[in-house]
Amino acid sequence: MSKRWRYFISTLLSVFGFYMYLWLPVDSRYYGLALEIGLVVFCFWFGLGVIFENNIDQKLMVIILPLIFSLGYSLFCALLSLNQFYMIFLSVIFGLMIYTMFLLENVFLVVIGFKTVPMYRAAYTTSLIFTLFSSFFVFNSILSFKWPFYINFFWVGLLSVILFLYQFWAIAIELPDDGVGKGKWIYATVAGFMMGELGLAFSFWPVGVFKGSIYLVCAIYILSGLFQADIKERLFKSVLINYGLIGIAVTVAIILTNTWG
């Protein structure tokens, strides 16, 4: 069976799982979500042909983005009041996203073997966009639950660590040594801790769910950009200034757009 057919069949199965999840009663959706995510993971391993792969690290990396996206998108959609039309529409969007992620992960797997792949830069940029969208959906869901600050710290931090591990992998696979010795866990845990602190701060700061999610996504973008520059040894002064200015602009926006009192 060709890759395209595996991607297509796997996408259809994932869409079916998502659509059935939307049909579930509210009190059953968390069980349905676990089954849906399990189905998505299986479909990606099958579609990408790594289901019997011995490289556990590679096997885990290729499912992080679709897993986080499925989690965030499903939780986000569960907060909406949906009729039949919107359920079908959201399922189609989900399918398009999943199929695109199959193409992205395929490029990354090819890069691991050949290093110089013309589509890599476009694939990485697209994967970063997907990472930002996935971050928004999952952070929006976390903040919507109105959990205590320590739970927000834990979940925002944990999911950020996972996303930054994926970002490190997507950046480092282009390097001759796949980034060995670059300290991926240091990158991911430090950045994840910073994100967790922001999640904690937004538990007290009156930013609102939507704006809080946007600000967290901006932090993911800034840290990912700094990661890429540092891992590829291009962390020049101009790069620090550019991302520093973005960070200042976001901080000013947080302060000016909040309703105090």
TrEMBL record:
Question: Keyword Lyase: yes or no?
Answer: no
Q: Tell me the keywords, alphabetical order.
A: Membrane, Transmembrane, Transmembrane helix
* Transmembrane residue ranges: 7-24, 30-48, 60-82, 88-111, 123-143, 149-173, 212-229, 241-260
> Tell me, what's a Pfam family for it?
DUF5656
* Protein name, per record: Uncharacterized protein
**Highest classification ranks of the organism:** Bacteria, Candidatus Shapironibacteriota
